[in-house]
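Batch 3, record 17
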Amino acid sequence: MSWNRKHLLDIESLTAAEIFTVLDTARAFKAVGERAIKKVPALRGKTVVNLFIEPSTRTRISFELAAQRLTADIVNFSADASSFKKGETLKDTARNLEALNADFIIIRHSASGAPHFLSRVVNAHIINAGDGAHEHPTQALLDTFTIREKKGKVAGLNVTILGDILYSRVARSNIWALTKLGANVTLCGPATLVPRTFEQMGCRVTHDVEEAIRDADIINLLRIQHERQRQTMFPGIGEYTTLFGLTKARLARTKPDALIMHPGPINRGVEIDSDIADSGRSLILEQVTNGLAVRMAVLFLVNGGQGPHGVTVG
Ligand code: CP
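Prediction for the assembled complex:
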């Protein structure tokens, strides 16, 4: 067991041993989730607030279910119906949530560093659910969990991340996690969205999609993050699909056991052919399922839980 952190703010600062502790604990929680009684009392009496200032389907709902499975009280904060609209700051909002006995604040925010900021101004446990283009740590943890579950290991695998890397927090967190665990990471996409500076993170960068997917064990597709792009980064969606979309013809040129991942939401017919998304090669919905166990593990560990051997059934 290697975990002694009050918060989960990023993957960059984690060790490989800490990542494996989350993955092993998630595996124990996944087993609990397959039993008739799926709840454990680990967070009984605790209050979890989902402070999502950006839209979310998968992350918000799986954190909500994770908190419920751990017997915590969970409150969903709606930015549009909140006093943000009256000018209240993030700091004051969080301090007011804490005054209402929030023990955990799960934050998604468009500003990189917002979770780190909150960890300095409140006493609650802070979990980063996505901050700008910086990091999305629980996505990377559920992705590596899924890879290990399917392939039996992460070290030595060839993982290609294909798409809008520059604006992707999922890409950054995955790069940190995969390289720490010993995978060979290749990044591919338009040169404007995959600059060579990413090589400094220990990745291979190529703008040739055929080369990027040829030897891949895992192909993780990313959508174009229009909401974070301040200028046009390529001529058009049609051209993107032609040059970088995962089509059936391209899939036929990959290794037969290469598996397809995507953090969602997917744009069918853009970065991924619709039939591929629904095929047996796709792990997209298994990633979502695994997100619940991974988020239970994260809540459990930041609360002081003792790794996989500390997971008890209610
Ligand atoms: N993958 C992911 O973060 O999805 P949501 O935006 O729906 O949470």
